[in-house]
Amino acid sequence: MSSPRSNRSNPLALAVLVCLLEAPMHPYQMAQTLRNRAKEHSIRLNYGSLYGVVENLEKRKLVQARETLREGRRPERTIYEITEAGAREALDWLSDMISVPVKEYPQLVAALSFVVALPPSEAMTALQCRYQALQLRLLQMAGMRRAAAEAGLPDVFSLESELEQALVDTELKYVGDLIDRIATGSLDGLPMWRAFHEADDETLKRLAAEVAQGLPWPGPESRERRTPFTDPDASSE
Amino acid sequence: MSSPRSNRSNPLALAVLVCLLEAPMHPYQMAQTLRNRAKEHSIRLNYGSLYGVVENLEKRKLVQARETLREGRRPERTIYEITEAGAREALDWLSDMISVPVKEYPQLVAALSFVVALPPSEAMTALQCRYQALQLRLLQMAGMRRAAAEAGLPDVFSLESELEQALVDTELKYVGDLIDRIATGSLDGLPMWRAFHEADDETLKRLAAEVAQGLPWPGPESRERRTPFTDPDASSE
DNA sequence: GCACAAATATTCGGTCCCGAATATCATTGG
DNA sequence: CCAATGATATTCGGGACCGAATATTTGTGC
C-alpha cells in the first residue's frame, strides 16, 4: 500500500539521495561523482544497479525527474532532483545507520566458524596467505590516506577510511596471533583438531564431530532446548 | 554449460557442505545443527533460502539425494549426502575464503562516508547512541564467550566469536575516539563541517560541496583523469 | 478428544540486483 | 573521412533471496 518497493536495504539508494542533496543530476553523473570521491571504496557501486535504484526512489516519491535532455546527441539523460520527503528520508536513514549497529557477517568470521573442517596444516597455509594479503592492503590504504592528507583533504571527509583501516588492522593482528597460537601449540583444542584429521579411522572422525555437536553451546538466552533430533534410524552402511 | 547456477557467492552453501561432510541429513536438520552450534551468528541463515541452496548444490553435483523418507507421519524428508566433488569443493572454498580477503562494506563505513551531510550535532547524537549499543553488544558477546568456555568448549571451536569481538571492540573504540574528537574540536575540518550547516545561505552550502568535490582525491593508481563532466549547459534557473 | 498453540519441514511469489549487452558520442590516426 | 577504440549512458534478462504462507505433527489444557 504505502511504500511500493524496497525499504532501506540498499545503501546505494542512500548514496543517490546524498548526491541529489547537493545538486540535481542524472544517474551516470551520480556514479561519476561517487567515483571521484572514492566512495566506491565504502559503497558497493554497480552501474547496472543505479538505474533500478533511482526508479525505485522515484516510485517512493523521494526523488523526481526534473527534465529530460535530449540535445540530439547523447541518449536521453534524465536529470533527477530530490524531494522534500527525500531530503528528510536521507537524513533520517543516515542517522539510523549510525545510531543502530546491525549484525554483519564478514567472510573471515564465517570461514573461521568452519575452520576445524580443514586440516590444521592447510588452515595454517591459508592463514599465512591472508596475512600477507592483508599487510599489502594496509600499505595501500596507508598510501591513499597519506596522499589524501597531502592533497589537503580534511580528515572529516575521510573518516570512513580511518575506520576501514582500523578494522583491517584488527583483522591482521588477529590472524597473526592465530598463526602464532597454532605454531606454538598454545591454541586450546589444537590436539583435538589434529586428531580429527590424523585419524585414518572414519569412526573416530564421526565421534569427534559428535563431541563438538554434543557440547552444550549456550545461546544468549543461556538455556536452549537440547534438540531431540528425532529417530535413530541412522541406517547401517 | 558446466555449472548451471551460482558460484561461491552464498556462504550458506558452504555451511551446507560442511554439515554434510559430517553426516547425511535433510535440510531442516542442517538448520538445526547450525543453530545448535550457534553458527547463525556467523552465517546469514534463512530457512527459506536453505532449500534453494541445496537444490543448487544438487544441480552442480556437489550433493545428492540419498533417500526420501515418508514414514506416513511428517512431510517427505529428503536426506542428502555429499559427493566426492562436493567434499573437494568444500575444502577448496573454505581454504580460499581464508586465503583471499575480499572487499567488504560495513554499514558504519558507508554511513561515515556521508556523515558530513548530517549536521554535526545530529551526527554526535547518533554516534553516542551507537556507542552505547556497541557497549551492550560487547557485554553480551563476552557473556556468551564466558559461558562457552565454562561449558568446556575448546577455543578452536569459537575462533569466529573471538574475531567478531575484536572487530566490534575496534569499532567501539573508533566511535569513542570520534566522539571525543568532535567534542574537543580536535577533528580536522570540523569548522568547515559546521559552516556547511550553520549557513542559512544556500550558495555557501553549494560552494562548500564543490570544494569537497573539487579536491583532488587520488585513487590508488595515483593519477586519475579529472573527469571533464561534459558541457557547461548547466542551464539557468 | 478437541480446540489451540507451537514445533516441524517445505513451498512459493515477488523483488532486487548483477553483469553483460546495447547504443551513442568523442577521439585518434592512417 | 571513416574505421577503430574508448568513454558515456542506459537497458534488460534472469537467477538468487527473503519472508510469508502452507501443511503436518506434536503437545497442552480442559
Characterization of the model:
2 copies of one chain form a homodimer. Chain A is mainly α. Chain A has helices spanning 11-22, 27-36, 47-59, 84-99, 107-112, 120-150, 159-184, 190-198, 202-214, and strands at 63-69, 77-82. A two-stranded antiparallel ribbon of chain A has the order 1-2. In chain A, a hairpin with a 7-residue loop joins strand 1 and strand 2. The longest helix of chain A has 31 residues, at 120-150. Chain A is elongated. Chains A and B meet through helix 1, helix 2, helix 4, helix 5 and helix 6 of A and helix 1, helix 2, helix 4, helix 5 and helix 6 of B. The first copy, chain A, binds a DNA duplex (30 and 30 nucleotides) through helix 2 and helix 3.
Order of helices and strands of chain A: HHHEEHHHHHH
Give a quick account of the main beta sheet of chain A: strands, pairing sense, barrel closure: 2 strands, antiparallel
Mean pLDDT of chain A: 83
The fraction of residues in strands of chain A falls at 5-15%
Largest contact between chains: A-B, 103 and 102 residues
User: What count of helical segments of chain A does DSSP give?
Assistant: 9
Please estimate the helix content of chain A.
55-70%
Low-confidence stretches of chain A: 1-5, 216-237
